[in-house]
């Protein structure tokens, strides 16, 4: 069976997309901490039109994070196909690692989104709140399934009743799992 073409969002309003998103579910990377909780991404628009990316997760009470830059793969296209570039290791910006970030679906109010990659090895369900209505969650899962994702690999991300506000918590200096998950290794 030929895989259905993956359609992406057109004319994404980047300004509205900025801010904090919580990871509701994802395809786990084997390098990601199995016990990672409260995983979230915060996007901030840079003056040059690129996007500053901050990914955070908490594991064993420690905050792991990595920062990067997102930009349109094709500046002349209206499709929401982005590239995200991280630097490895996070504290020595020497080796850039680039991954695909395709916005497959976003609701009209920019409250929840489905993010994928052409390889279909990675999938994220993001929400502005750290909880997502089950019905909406199931709709997003179905959308992913319709374009050829093996949704049995989706793992729900645990979230605390009260998510961390800022960047408190001891630092996890390893942080390398983000890179490896982006690289798909």
UniProtKB/TrEMBL annotation:
Cross-referenced CDD domains:
lipocalin_Blc-like (cd19438)
What does UniProt give as GO cellular component? cytoplasm
Domain Lipocalin/cytosolic fatty-acid binding, by residue range, is 12-158
Q: InterPro entries attached here? A: Calycin (IPR012674), Lipocalin_ApoD (IPR022271), Lipocalin_bac (IPR002446), Lipocalin_Blc-like_dom (IPR047202), Lipocalin_CS (IPR022272), Lipocln_cytosolic_FA-bd_dom (IPR000566)
Q: Mind listing the GO biological process terms from this record?
A: lipid metabolic process; response to reactive oxygen species
Alphabetical list of SUPFAM superfamilies matching this protein: Lipocalins
Q: Which PROSITE patterns match?
A: LIPOCALIN (PS00213)
Q: Read off the PANTHER family from this record.
A: APOLIPOPROTEIN D
Instruction: Give the family per the record.
Output: Belongs to the calycin superfamily. Lipocalin family.
Return the protein name.
Lipocalin/cytosolic fatty-acid binding domain-containing protein
| Source organism (scientific name) | Arachis hypogaea (Peanut)
């Amino acid at each position: 069976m030929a895989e259905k073409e993956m359609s992406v969002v057109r004319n994404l309003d980047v300004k509205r997309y900025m801010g904090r998103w919580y990871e509701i579910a994802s395809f786990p990377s084997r390098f990601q901490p199995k016990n990672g909780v409260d995983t979230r991404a915060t996007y901030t628009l840079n003056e040059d039109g690129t996007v500053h990316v901050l990914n955070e997760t908490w594991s064993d009470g420690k905050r792991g994070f990595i920062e990067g830059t997102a930009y349109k793969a094709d500046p002349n296209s209206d499709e929401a196909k982005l590239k995200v570039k991280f630097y490895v290791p996070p504290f020595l910006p020497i080796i850039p690692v680039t991954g695909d970030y395709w916005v497959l679906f976003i609701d009209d109010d920019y409250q929840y989104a489905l993010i994928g990659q052409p390889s279909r090895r990675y999938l994220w369900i993001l929400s502005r709140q750290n909880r997502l209505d089950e019905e909406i969650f199931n709709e997003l899962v179905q959308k992913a399934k319709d374009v050829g994702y093996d949704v049995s690999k989706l793992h729900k991300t645990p979230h605390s009743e009260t998510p961390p506000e800022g960047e408190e918590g001891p630092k996890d200096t390893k942080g390398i799992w983000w890179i490896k998950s982006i690289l798909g290794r």
